[in-house]
Write a structure and sequence with these properties.
The protein is mostly helical and 231 residues long. It has helices at 2-12, 18-36, 38-42, 53-69, 88-109, 117-123, 126-146, 158-171, 185-204, 208-230; strands at 173-176, 179-182. Helix 4 (53-69) runs parallel beside helix 7 and helix 5 (88-109) packs parallel to helix 10 (208-230).
Length: 231
């Protein structure tokens, strides 16, 4: 994603907060390694847990630390329940649509495995909290500062594009036999969903609905997949 971010910064003609945005992208990359590192699973993992609660908690911690010590305020990153005028209805409709998409994906592809309480609790909380704070919260806010809107435009579209692509790319690569593999479907769904989450963030001015939509989509995929697998 570094070339994409570099092109976006160059196209903006501005360098404001650009170094902070580059730093945050590098932190996102490092976080991806730490969340999937064996030491997180084997040493720091919650005893008896099947999901990486510790990794997501670390993701939340460093993003909150970045907010506390960085150039952004809580309102800048969307940590507010106040919504922009006339945004509630479209936010609800988009969120319901994403949940229905998750139900469809789970029913078609299955593979959810037995539905456990831990799985449902994890999918309803941690992915949305950690990833929305990072991507549609801190990273998007930094890019809006680094890439201001052109004269006459309400908002710059580059920040949403970069964060959406970054979100999709973090979900698609995997290590198989010591080689990096890229799968199209695990890239496509986060690309579509990430664009919707970015739209929700821009429309409402808050991380509330992107987080609800994110966790609702994830939970719907697992619940529907489990039901389809058991049928």
């Amino acid at each position: 994603m570094l070339p994409v971010l570099a092109v976006a910064l160059a196209a903006s003609g501005s360098r404001r907060t650009g170094s902070a945005a580059l730093l945050f992208l590098l932190l996102l990359t490092l976080d991806g390694f730490l969340v999937s590192a064996p030491v997180v699973y084997d040493v720091a993992q919650v005893p008896g847990a099947n999901w990486n609660w510790t990794g997501k908690a670390l993701s939340l911690a460093w993003a909150l630390a970045f907010i506390g010590f960085g150039p952004l305020s809580r309102r800048d990153v969307g940590l507010t329940v106040r919504q922009r005028p006339n945004s509630l209805r479209p936010a609800v409709l988009v969120t319901v649509g994403l949940v229905l998409l998750g139900v469809t994906i789970g029913a078609v592809f299955g593979g959810g495995g037995p539905l456990r309480v831990e799985t449902l609790a994890y999918q309803l909380t941690m992915p949305g909290l950690a990833e929305e704070l990072a991507f549609r919260g801190v990273f998007l806010a930094l890019l809006h500062r680094a890439i201001p809107a052109e004269a006459g435009a309400a908002v710059s579209w580059w920040p949403a594009v970069v964060t959406t692509l970054a979100f999709a790319f973090t979900h698609s690569p995997s290590l198989e036999g010591g080689r990096i593999a890229f799968a199209f479907l695990p890239f496509l769904l986060p690309l579509v969903a990430g664009a919707a989450f970015a739209w929700l963030r821009e429309k409402t001015g808050s991380l509330l609905w992107p987080t609800i939509a994110h966790n609702g989509l994830n939970a719907a995929i697992f619940v529907s997949g489990s039901v389809a697998g058991a049928a």
